[in-house]
Design a protein that fits this description.
176 residues, 8 helices, disordered C terminus
Length: 176
């Protein structure tokens, strides 16, 4: 493993990579944290900031040019922004279940699915983690991401359960 491919890439890719790694590491901690307290909020704010930085910096990466200088990946930052907006709107409205679902789905799709594409052979992160040659490494990461996605999906609150039972710190709030 070597970080040389990232360090040699320029500031936009370096910023994007650091933000994505922070989001990847902090996300499960916030999602799986049983108590919704100040530590959950701090992890959540950190994750949201990292996601925004990763999304905005992704707009400056033009390596896969399919439509002029752009690729379908350039639509993802707008989707991330929309989903973050919906999740923040849900928590401000007291809809804890919708907030949890939106954040979990955003993590799974952005970190799991989109992040997995960065590990394909020939891509920079594959060169960092697997020396650029390994389909085995990609397969292992795909299985690990599927397991993490399953764990996060199973940890989501179920609609039949009341918010007060799930989140005792927010007893006055209800799901809308």
């Amino acid at each position: 493993m070597t970080v040389d491919p990232i360090l040699a890439s320029g500031p936009v890719i370096l910023i994007h990579t650091v933000a994505a790694v922070v989001a990847f590491v902090v996300g499960p901690f916030s999602i799986l944290r049983r108590r919704r307290d100040a530590l959950h909020r701090a992890a959540g704010y950190t994750w949201v900031v990292a996601m925004v930085i990763a999304a905005v910096s992704a707009l400056g990466i033009f390596e896969l040019r399919l439509i002029g200088p752009l690729s379908p990946i350039h639509a993802l930052p707008f989707l991330v922004g929309f989903m973050l907006w919906r999740a923040i709107r849900a928590i401000r409205a007291g809809n804890l279940i919708e907030h949890g679902r939106m954040m979990t789905q955003l993590y799974i799709w952005s970190m799991g699915v989109a992040g997995l594409f960065t590990l394909l052979p020939g891509r920079r992160m594959n060169a960092v983690l697997f020396d650029g040659q390994s389909w085995v490494g990609f397969g292992f990461c795909a299985l690990a991401m599927a397991g993490l996605a399953w764990l996060l999906w199973c940890a989501q609150p179920k609609a039949a359960t009341t918010d007060a039972a799930l989140f005792p710190l927010h007893k006055g709030m209800s799901s809308r």
